[in-house]
């Protein structure tokens, strides 16, 4: 058997091909030629991560990018009064952070694991060297950054123009199948937990949302609000 004895394998994969398959499930490496993915795969260090682990903290120098193979990670910032705001909720297939890779500086927010999983780590130096050699990789990373910027722009529009009820419903629709607490939903919509709890209670009375025994949200959306019909999963 062709064992994955490179740093990319780190004991987590039976073969080098398995490492490449795992990497191609991480966006934007799904948009990169297979040969280049195989080259990147030799530079990835994979390791388990546990709920509560902090992968990096806001303000620390950007030294690496992270590839989420399994589990969930929240990207958060905290204001001067200690209130937490969730910038992103990340799942399998996500690469982060979205900024700082090319320009350096500090991480713009803190990355905390909220569900056990596995993460790949590639140093910033390695990525920059590969980008200098391969235009396809540079283009893929820039496209991924543009997608993240568009997402943030939509978040800003939602916070400015949409009422709390609509913002909460949008979050529940986007994260159907996830185990979000009321506090995490509040941190996503920029509101107090008590206000969010009242809105969710109203949705439950109306039959719009339910929560299964494991804490996963299910939503039946009305016409014109985030889609039609019931939906399970992501």
UniProtKB/TrEMBL annotation:
InterPro entries assigned: cNMP-bd_dom, cNMP-bd_dom_sf, Env_Response_Regulators, HTH_CRP, RmlC-like_jellyroll, Tscrpt_reg_HTH_Crp-type_CS, WH_DNA-bd_sf
Record-level GO cellular component terms: cytosol
UniProt cross-references to SMART domains, sorted A to Z: cNMP, HTH_CRP
Positions of the Cyclic nucleotide-binding domain: 28-148
MF-aspect GO terms: DNA binding; DNA-binding transcription factor activity
Residues that span the membrane, as ranges: none
Keywords, ordered alphabetically: DNA-binding, Transcription, Transcription regulation
Sequence ranges assigned to domain HTH crp-type in this UniProt record: 162-223
Superkingdom of the organism of origin: Bacteria
PANTHER family: CRP FAMILY TRANSCRIPTIONAL REGULATORY PROTEIN, REGULATORY PROTEIN YEIL
Name listed for the protein in its UniProt record: Transcriptional regulator, Crp/Fnr family
Species of origin: Thermaerobacter marianensis (strain ATCC 700841 / DSM 12885 / JCM 10246 / 7p75a)
């Amino acid at each position: 058997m062709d064992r994955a004895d490179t740093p990319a394998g780190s004991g987590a994969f039976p073969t080098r091909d398995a490492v490449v398959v795992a990497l191609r499930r991480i966006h934007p490496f799904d948009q990169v030629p297979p040969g280049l993915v195989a080259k990147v795969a030799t530079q990835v260090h994979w390791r388990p991560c546990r709920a509560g682990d902090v992968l990096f903290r806001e303000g620390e120098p950007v030294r690496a990018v992270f590839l989420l193979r399994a589990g969930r990670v929240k990207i958060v910032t905290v204001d001067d009064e200690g209130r937490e705001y969730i910038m992103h909720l990340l799942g399998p297939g996500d690469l982060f952070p979205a900024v700082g890779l090319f320009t350096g500086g500090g991480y713009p927010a803190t990355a905390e694991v909220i569900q056990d999983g596995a993460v790949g780590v590639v140093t910033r130096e390695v990525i920059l060297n590969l980008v200098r050699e391969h235009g396809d990789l540079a283009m893929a990373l820039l496209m991924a950054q543009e997608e993240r910027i568009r997402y943030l722009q939509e978040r800003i529009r939602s916070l400015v123009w949409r009422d709390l009820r609509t913002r909460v419903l949008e979050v529940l629709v986007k994260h159907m199948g996830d185990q979000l607490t009321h506090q995490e939903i509040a941190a996503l919509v920029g509101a107090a937990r008590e206000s969010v709890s009242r809105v969710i209670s109203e949705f439950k009375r109306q039959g719009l949302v339910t929560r299964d025994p494991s804490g996963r949200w299910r939503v039946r959306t009305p016409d014109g609000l985030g889609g039609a019909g019931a939906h399970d999963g992501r």
